[in-house]
Amino acid sequence: MSAPVLSFVACAGWSRCLLAPQVGLVIATTFWAGNFVIGRALRGEIEPLALNFWRWTIAAIVLAPFAWSAFRVQWPVLRSHWKYVTVLGITGFAVPHTCSYAALQTTSPVNALLLLNLMPVYVAVVAWRVFAQPMQRVQWIGILVALLGAASILVRWDWDAVVNLHFNRGDLWMLPAVACAGTHTLLLKKTPPGVTQGPLLFSSVVAAVLLMVPVVAWTGVGRLAAVADVWQGTLYVGTCASAAAFFLWNRGVVFVGPQRAAPFMYMMPVYASLLSAVFLNESVQRYQVAGGAIVVAGLYLARKTRERVPWS
Predict the structure, then answer these.
(1) Residue 147 class from Cβ within 10 Å (0-12 exposed, 13-18 middle, 19+ buried)?
(2) End-to-end CA, the chain
(3) 166 falls in which pLDDT band (50, 70, 90)?
(4) Of 98, 90, 283, which Cα lies nearest the Cα of 174?
(5) Which of 59, 78, 90, 160 is 20 to 30 Å apart from 242, CA to CA?
(6) What does the radius of gyration of the chain's CA atoms come to, in whole angstroms?
(7) Residue 312 predicted with pLDDT over 60
(8) 30-46 as b/e, with b when 16 or more CB fall inside 10 Å?
C-alpha cells in the first residue's frame, strides 16, 4: 500500500475517532468541568451574577444562527407556552449557574461538582413523589448512600463541623443549584408537542438573559468594564462551556442513549481535579476522594432497575 493511501486511511481513522459520539461526550464534560475551574479562577474579579449574565448572552449569540430557522417556525407554539419557557430559563440557566459561581467563591471546583452529582437523586425522589414514578428498594438504598456521601463532603469528614453545624458557605450554595437543575430536567419531560430541543434551548437561554437584565442593571455588576479584564474566561464559558458543550452532549445522547451518556457526567470531578491542579494549584483532598466514591456508588445503585430500558 502506497504512502498516500496509508496517509488517507490514517486520516480517515482519526476523523472517525474524533467524530465519535463518545469523544464528544468526553469533550463536553471536560468543557463543563473547565467552567467550574474558570469560575473559581475568576473569584473576586467578577461578580457571579455578571459572569452568568455574560456567559448566556454570549451563548445566545452563538446559538442564534443555528437555531433561528427552526425557532421562527416554532415561535407560535413557544409564545403560547411562554410561562413554561420562562420557568425553564430560571431553573436551567439564570439561577443554578449564578449559585454555582457564588459557590466557587469559597469552595473548590471538585467539591462543587461532587455535590452537583446529587442531581439524579433529586430527580428520582421528585419523580417518585410528584409523578408517582415507581422506585425499587435498591434505588432507595442508592439514594441514601449518595446522600451520605454528599453529607460527608459537606462536613469534610470533620466531626466538629457535625457537632457545631458549621458548613462551608460555598458548599451550601450548591444545594439550590442542584434543586434548580433537577427541576429543569424534570420540566423538560413536559416539552410541548411540536417543539424541538434546539429552539427550546435557545428560547430558554434568551428568557434567562432577559430575566437577568433588570437585576444586572439595578446592581450595576454587568457593565462591560466588569468583564474587560476577564474577557478570555468569559468567552470560554459562553462558547466552549455553553454552546459547544450542549451541542456535543446532545449529539452524544442521540447516538448512544441517555443511560450510556449519564456516566460521563460522573467523570467531571476527575477532570476538574486535573484542571485545578494545573491551573489553580489546588490538590485533591482525601475527604473529596472518599465522599466522591460514596456518591458515585450510591448513584450506581440508584440507577439499577430490573427492567431493561431501551436506548433512545
Answers:
(1) middle
(2) 41
(3) low
(4) 98
(5) 78
(6) 20
(7) no
(8) bbbbbbbbbbbbbbeeb
Contact between 187 and 123 (Cβ < 8 Å) = no
Residues of the chain with pLDDT > 90: what percent?
A: 39
Alpha carbon distance 63, 46 (integer Å): 24
Distance separating alpha carbons of residues 291 and 152, to the nearest angstrom: 6
What is the spatial distance between Cα 264 and Cα 95, in angstroms, rounded to a whole number?
24
Residue 292 has pLDDT above 80, yes or no: no
Cell numbers 437577568 correspond to 212
Dist CA 170 CA 179 (whole Å): 15
Interaxial angle between packed helices 137-155 and 286-302, expressed in degrees from 0 to 180 and rounded to the nearest 10:
160
This prediction has a pTM of 0.82
Other CB atoms closer than 10 Å to residue 48's CB: what's the count? 21
Q: Can you tell me the distance from the alpha carbon of 101 to that of 94, in angstroms, rounded to the nearest whole number?
A: 11
Burial string for 73-107 (b: 16+ CB within 10 Å, else e) reads ebeeebeebeebbbbbbbbbbbbbbbbbbbbbbeb
| Predicted local confidence at residue 225, as pLDDT | 65
More confident residue, 12 or 118: 118
Phi, psi (degrees; rounded to nearest 5) at 214: -65, -35
Alpha-carbon distances, residue 56 vs 93, 241, 303 (angstroms): 8, 10, 31
- Which residue is listed with cell 450510556? 260
Residue 148: CB atoms within 10 Å: 14
How many Å apart are CA 253 and CA 311, to the nearest integer?
10
Measured from the Cβ of residue 135, the count of other Cβ atoms closer than 10 Å reads 16
Furthest CA-CA distance within the chain? 73
**CA 3, CA 274: separation in Å to the nearest integer?**
39
**Residue 225 has which C-alpha cell?**
468594564
Distance of CA 74 to the CA centre of its chain: 26
